[in-house]
TrEMBL record, chains A, B, C, D:
Residues 34-53 bind DNA. The keyword DNA-binding applies. Keywords: DNA-binding. It comes from Dyadobacter arcticus. Residues 11-71 form the HTH tetR-type domain. This is AcrR family transcriptional regulator. It holds the Pfam family TetR_N. SUPFAM superfamilies: Homeodomain-like, Tetracyclin repressor-like, C-terminal domain. It comes from the Bacteria. Gene3D superfamilies: Homeodomain-like, Tetracycline Repressor, domain 2. The keyword DNA damage does not apply.
Amino acid sequence: MPKEKQTTKKQEKYTLILDAAETLMKKKGLYSLNMDEVSYFSNLAKGTLYLYFRSKEEILAALALKARILLLAHFEKAVLNENQPIQQLKAIIHANYTFLKNNPLYYELVSFYEINDRETETEEMSAVILRITELVIGIIKNGQLAGEIDSRIDPSILSFTMWGMTVGIMQLLKVKAATISNHPNLSENIVLDNYIKVFLDGIK
Amino acid sequence: MPKEKQTTKKQEKYTLILDAAETLMKKKGLYSLNMDEVSYFSNLAKGTLYLYFRSKEEILAALALKARILLLAHFEKAVLNENQPIQQLKAIIHANYTFLKNNPLYYELVSFYEINDRETETEEMSAVILRITELVIGIIKNGQLAGEIDSRIDPSILSFTMWGMTVGIMQLLKVKAATISNHPNLSENIVLDNYIKVFLDGIK
Amino acid sequence: MPKEKQTTKKQEKYTLILDAAETLMKKKGLYSLNMDEVSYFSNLAKGTLYLYFRSKEEILAALALKARILLLAHFEKAVLNENQPIQQLKAIIHANYTFLKNNPLYYELVSFYEINDRETETEEMSAVILRITELVIGIIKNGQLAGEIDSRIDPSILSFTMWGMTVGIMQLLKVKAATISNHPNLSENIVLDNYIKVFLDGIK
Amino acid sequence: MPKEKQTTKKQEKYTLILDAAETLMKKKGLYSLNMDEVSYFSNLAKGTLYLYFRSKEEILAALALKARILLLAHFEKAVLNENQPIQQLKAIIHANYTFLKNNPLYYELVSFYEINDRETETEEMSAVILRITELVIGIIKNGQLAGEIDSRIDPSILSFTMWGMTVGIMQLLKVKAATISNHPNLSENIVLDNYIKVFLDGIK
DNA sequence: TATGAATGAGCGTTCATTCAT
DNA sequence: AATGAATGAACGCTCATTCAT
């Protein structure tokens, strides 16, 4: 069998396992993933899982990577739809929100590794976040050139800050969903828009 | 034995257990707390633990409450040291940061219940968060009266937003501590100050 | 304090405990009785329970005795209402059935000690069963004298047999209640009457 | 390894566990079975037990099923040895008795599920009881055709009644073994024969 | 490469009984 | 006599990982 084919086959199983894990997590949540079920739903023996992933943790990390890549793609697409830097930043925050809404599991995975200091975070994973950061830095620089963003702010620091704030707001929206919907004056969109307003006004 | 003394003794055991749990969590992290070790380190039989707490979860909740109360106290003290609303908000964010630095476990406990929708969150626990919210709302209102904060922003929404953003930034500082310290232009304080600047400029 | 009064008081507590245990068992079943709840519902400290009963088992035994005494009383009353031996036996079986229906817990207690060979069965408890046996023996003898019951059967053996068969039928009615009510031709009364018929025809 | 062999091996372990459980129950009684000891006596890790049985309860159920099947076989064999319906019924009751004597644990298991309404009673288990019922019904019908059993009695009701009475008598013999052997006029056989006589006379 | 049987430490919780006060 | 805090063995069950085949 040619090596390529083998690699393809290997890749297939790898994906198979990841898909099973993902399906299971969507059904039962991030924390109740267990190898027995992954084995069952991937139609692979339990031992086989360990030929593709050194541990359960590694499966999680792989999914987290996938989630980050998807988020990056989401951001890139959102940015392309806009011309003005400010609108692009806005678009990114909105993309973040829709991503959270449409892929709660992926967002949870992203947060999970953002919040907890996992020792398994690989360079590959960090690289994606770096690309997100660079995307944002680029926009900020453009905004500063266009005079729409305060030039005294260091772009990379701002990008960093923006990421932290936005993740914080997203978590708030997720956890306090009930509180928000019960409040008369509140809605998720109002909170989100308020955040965007404060942020954009803050960087002018 | 007078009833008072007994109550004191009971209180002592309660604290003993909580202290043991706290020490253990500081050593091994929030998630690896287990009743066997709590029993061992508190010099109490495992069954005894259940005379003071109905479940392991309740121990966690008690510690989370303690953490929240401490955080509130921290905030109140910080606010008292300042006269101007803007300075007070700044002080709160700084207090949040020093709290995180000095009591990482407590901060983790606060976050834990902020991020995960625990069913065990009691009214008592929510009440503390409410008091924090009200503290902030009060300051915002003062700031609006003094013309230092944009009057068009709803105070309670802003308080909400501020909480989300700040928690997000704190997590960022915690998780990305290594990244930050490696960066040449970055330091935790710079990120923090940048956040504060953006936030305060944003609400002017 | 006169000794009598003390005894009375002692008796009161004894009854208190038994009542609490009974109430609890009615609520949650024979097997889930636990000393914590007995303590709580009797308003007596847990240690106090052990001043009146050497063990939980002893509480069970006391209740089983009470149940047997009540059953005996039930039988005696039933017998008094009839003149003819055959009718009296019939009445006893019916009394057994109504007792089961009205006091399922008591019946369970009676059965419990009939089915399992409890080491705690006291002479007092056996004595009650003996009195039931003797009651039945008396009736059988009368029936034999009256020519209504086959004289060749030894009365005490028959009494023994009758007790076994009846308890068996009662259990059947209890456990197979669902099966019986689903069956088109069956009802508890039909089974009971059939049993009575077979039994009475069998001893003629 | 051929699949057949594996199945055999799997079957062997299943049996191993069941045997360990059985041995333990014979030693210490139905109720004190625990998984630690089953693990120890089967030379299998505790986790392994759960590969073959979903729960402790399932082990009990499996043994109860085994007991029922054995009892049915016992009955069928007893019936084959006789030609006359009345003799066959007699043989069944005797078979019941010898079964109790030879396999007290199995009998306890049969009773256990007869007395307590276990939610785990499977269709397979009910099916065996049904076959016993049908065996008896068939005999009764034959007896009625031959004019040896009262035709006015509904066979299925009678079968039902007979099962209840017989189980009751067996329990009596088991629990009151001591009482019986102490009595001058009594012996287990006398009680049994008396029961059979009453029953058979009753259905004529 | 693939299997899946086997492992066994680990977990949270219960509860009858004891005993110092 | 009365208390109730304290005990600690016991229990059923889970699950990531290993390894002989």
